[in-house]
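Notebook B, p. 112. Complex prediction, attempt 2.
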Amino acid sequence: MRIVIFLFIIILNFILQTTLLSSLALNNIVPDTSLILIILYARLRNDTEGFIFGFVTGLLTDIFFSPFFGFYALLGGFIGYFAGKPFRNFYRSNLVTPLLLIGFGTFIYEYIFYFFNFLFRGKVDFFSYFTSLIFPEIIYNLIFSIFIYKILFYINFKIECIEKPKRKIFEDIETLS
Amino acid sequence: MKKKLNTILLFFLAVIFIAILSVGYRYKVEPLHKGVSFVIIPIQKSITEVKSFINTKINSYKEDKSLKQTIEELNNEITELEIENNRLKHLEKENSRLAKLLETADSYPDYNKVTSKVIAKDTTNWYNTFVIDKGNKDGVYENMPVLASGGLVGKVIKSGHNYSEVLSLIDDRSSVSGISVRSDALGFVKGDYKLINQNLVKMEFDQNANILEGDEIVTSHLSEIFPFGISIGIVNAIESSNNMKTATIIPFVDFSHLDTVLVITENFEKDLSELIDQEN
């Protein structure tokens, strides 16, 4: 159930991202919705599931676009795993930690991309790439992630209600009381 | 215990990753590519079609007003072109007559072309590649030149059964050997991320190269992939540093509104190192 629904979301996201999202470009910068989904999913569940989610999302990107096969899958898995690690005892409905991690995660993701695909080819001017690409994308991602988080939280909540939850939904509250 | 299991699992996944990376670097994972592309390509195609349909509707509404003026202008242009065309026909006849004399009649053959639609764009902001809806089954393979109405768009870098990925001229990884039509100055046309926003590419010349603003650049005979003489763009500005000249070039193709491209389904790959060996 969960697997089917989230596989569907991954594919739907990929299709929309490659076809329609380019019309939302501001100064040639588009938000990376797959990266947002990976981080938010890892926030909602845990590091292992975030890892798998990131890997599958990256694999789909790898099939169509790639510097070489496996790069996006590895990067997506890495981001998903480390986005699921920190701040485990915060409310999940709170937007602060996901937004913090989106901002930080986008920076790490783009930095790794820059490192392997641009720095290795001798393009050392990181600062200009930061101001022209990475920083605007972080802002754009943050704005987008607010809406995506609401939708994803709702879907995840419904699924957790259906499947008998291993992780209790309100465990945060129980530990507090 | 569970934590230990997780670490072991992660370790195994890391090993699998490295295996995937190294296998994927060499071979294409054919069933995976095929299966996924059969599902996704048709959907992307239809969504893009709907999108372009809406776009054309909006545009046609805008354009209605200025249509009359355009018709008049076009009529004038047609008469001009007809005169030009007659002159060129005359020249062509003369040319073929002379070419027969020189026995080089087939130096400019008609290429086989396939028209295809741009259906998807790259997901990152760093690069500028796109997916077209023609693949191996239509005879499109890697390293084939891709053109649009104005000139060179780029080359095919990956081809599946029913799709292929095109690296465009303005992509940061792209590098094409070009030549100035006026002065035969050779140089490399390179995409640069910093010029992507303005739809420009840069070109690197020798320090003493004879190059002026307004020169037309075409693909050179030294290119390993492209045939000679495909137009690329026009020189916009020139900058000289101590050991090279760098020119920015306005490509003939508008990359931000690309929806139909032509793929030349012939392979022009040649090994230039062999030629050099022969000469020595």
